[in-house]
Amino acid sequence: MPYELEKSISAKKAIDAINSRIFLLPAIQRKFVWSTHQICDLFDSIMCGYHISTFMMWEITSDCNKNNYRFYELLKNYCQRFNEDNPYIKTGANYPDFKAIIDGQQRLTSLYIGLCGTYAYKQPRVWWPSTMDENILPPRRLYLDLAQPLFSDDDSLNQYNFRFLTETQYQDSLAESKEHYWFCCHKILEFEQVDGASNVWNKVIKPYLERSGLSDNEFAEQTLCRLYDVVRTEKIIHYFNITDQNIDQVLDIFIRTNSGGTKLEFSDLLTSIAVANWKGDFRQEIENLTKYIQQSDMGFYIERNWVLKSCLMLTDADVRFKVKNFNAEQVKKIQSEWQKIKDCIKETFLLVRRLGINQQSLISKNAVIPVCYYLYKKTKNGRPLYHDINNLAMYSEQRLEIGRWFYMALLKGVFGGQADTTLTSMRDVLKENFQKTEFPLEEIIERYKTTNKDLRFDDDYIENLLDNPHGECRCRALLHLLIPQINPNEIFHIDHLHPKSAFEKKSLEKHGFLKDDEALHEFFSDAKHWNSIANLHLLNDSQNLSKTDKTLSNWLNDSNLTAKDLLVEGIGLEFEAFKQFYKHRRSNLKERLISRIFMPSELPTTPIEDSDEEVVEDENALNFR
What we know:
Helix content is 43%, strand content 10%. It is built from 26 helices and 16 strands. Strands 1-12-3-7-2-4-6 form a seven-stranded mixed sheet. Strands 5, 8, 9, 10 and 11 form a five-stranded mixed sheet that branches. The protein has a two-stranded antiparallel ribbon with strand order 13-14. α1 crosses α4, α6 crosses α7 (218-233) and α11 runs parallel beside α14 (368-377).
């Protein structure tokens, strides 16, 4: 029998085991992912006496396992994006025997955060900071309302009002009405440990309630007694203990245990297996890379899975997330090339940013991977192209062709859904054409003709693109495709040429020429006209500041731009001529767009499917080979 049921322990004993590093996490575990709502639900379930499922532990007694595998502490103070990784702890032959958590990390971490730690997430309606900032991501502690039970208008079945509060929120609650009494759950572990219900009441609960002005509140008496019992007395942690020291056997148990539900993504599991096979701290390596991409001027947020997918692509491995693709041999190959892979990823995202794409307009991060592969494998003057692609004195044609493909791929959404087959076939096309001087755009177009990944545009698709409104994710990519000559070193903003304020209802009512022409008034009022590509342009910082709400004609007189730059030569720029302006500029933009993309002479009514399009299997039918 690979495991057996052990004696149950209390939550207090589990917290002690975490603090003394008797409970650790194996590298195959994913990150902590539970929300504050899930943590509150867990504590409510415990208070209601519900079973919180059985845990599974792997008892580590072998010196070999202690020396050869990486283990981590449980996360104690979670901060969204900035502190999501578990601290590494070095184990060795002299390290005492311990238990690695195979199933139950989310619940145990939630218990610890609720009783000892903090949970920080971003305040609403503020931008993400570049570094951890407690003003934007304030740490929150778990509180329980002792004054009254939870009265909820929603579908929640919870009976107790658990809530994560910042210190400011807690202090504000003290000055408000006595409708709530927020008890910090950390205090339950600060209380004296006593045995027997009467002793708990007389020595712990009653004195606290009297000091807090709650001695006459029956709900507070019952609730605080219950919390003390479920944390310190009742044995609510039930777990199976695996004693087998064979890592393959344990890995098989882990996969079977964790892949049956939807909470653990299979990609998370495979990423963790790669981490387990890495000689060193791969989690920290990936964390450093993703933070650099996010917190530098590039500002892109990439996840661990994207990095692993790119590693498979760049080392010419099978890009699918399967167990066999993360064996020790493949991970060793990735590790041997890791420094070059990191450098290439950084340079690729810098290039993408210089193409005018930002986090909001990067619709699919998978579209970055083929560019990364090309820059990694293509050599110029004996060096991989990623070394010099961002040197603006060199390779302008390469950047132009790469950018052209990248914009089209984003606008056509060719990496939507399951992208593994597309990535693999793109890699094949690139490998076949490395002898070409420039990026093989025409060959890529030819490869995907008449498939559901066809990069060519028909007239209906172009018309729909030109209707893209300000703020739509493809808007920036389209404008950069239409205006490729802008300076890649500058930051550009999307702005209205005829100012947005001019089309507000009150503003339109002031114009006499619209009062007697209902059709024309309707045209001016329609956001599809004034808020779409035909009335939008990319402006740098100085141009944007000078534009504000000026009329187009007044601004253009003072601007370094010309009517030719805006594709509005020979037409009136006054507000009264907006209808003619719209039709003329839209027509010119369409003509320019057609010159920058590929138009087929004829498109089939129904695109032919790729013959090797990926078949999405049942996510529970895992491949262990």
